[in-house]
Amino acid sequence: MTSFIKINRRSALISVALSAITFAVIPAAAQTSWPNKPVKIVVPFAPGGTTDILARAVAPELSKALGQPFIVENRAGAGGNIGADLVAKSAPDGYTVLMGTVGTHGINKSLYSRLAYDPQKDFAPITLVAGVPNVMVMNTETAKTLGINNVPDFIRYAKANPGRLNMASSGNGTSIHLAGELFKSMTGIYMAHIPYTGSGPAMMAMVSGNVDVMFDNLPSAMPQIKGGKLKAFAVTSAQRSAALPDLPTIAEAGGPTLKGFDASSWFGLLAPAGTPPDIVKRMQEEVAKALGTPAIKEKMLAQGAIPSGNTPQQFTDFINAEHEKWAKVVKASGAKVD
What we know:
The protein has 338 residues and is α/β, with parallel strands linked by helices. The protein has 13 helices and eleven strands. It starts with a helix and ends in a 5-residue tail after the last helix.
């Protein structure tokens, strides 16, 4: 009888130990099976802008590499905050990620008095997809009618006609908005700001002549510049763009008044905080591979985007540095959204 009890106890202990091992292994096995269903890439702006363009460039590459559809979903509004908040509050399982921007993760924390998400604490950065200069553009016919051919002409006209010109953007807090605010603060001119739900709708208003000027991301503005619908004055970056090498920077074109002007954009993938590191790493590796292929790389460079694909830690450090940079720009510009 005693021997039987000892054997049963030993069997029970072995069974408990095996159960513990099984439960410990299941999460790891579940992780290695990722992805086993479609993955959603949330674009926090309307279709047609650079955020949307870049998301739709990497989505099919990820689909091919990982064997599941990567579906782009546009959730526009509040300068990108609606889409960003949606992802921040999603399950950290690798099936919902964000194409974040300098606005959602570099500017908005300083610009908005109330933000529903924390750009640094609520996300697991995956990789920087691309850096992009903005470009100062006017509707070609409007520029011709008003006799504005370059940045100095624009400043002279705006000072002589305060309030006559208005400025479109892809939403409050975007780099497109802040580039314009920085330009206004450095030159002392006034322009009414008209925010749209994305660069696409703002660009439609520009082409139709409903708004006068925009500091748009270069990739989304490039087709209209080449098509003659928009007149480009200068890029907003510290250096000229290889895509438009003859176009000066605003700092070059504006003289001493605009010395040091720099308001570039960037776009990167982020997952909700708590997403397993192996999923984050896998996605970063596949994005980096895609961005390194000649076809994708050449396409992006031709549009004015500079592909990256850096590591999650490098992207995290970059985001932290961007917070500090843009907090100073927001303060200097006086821009605030309640």
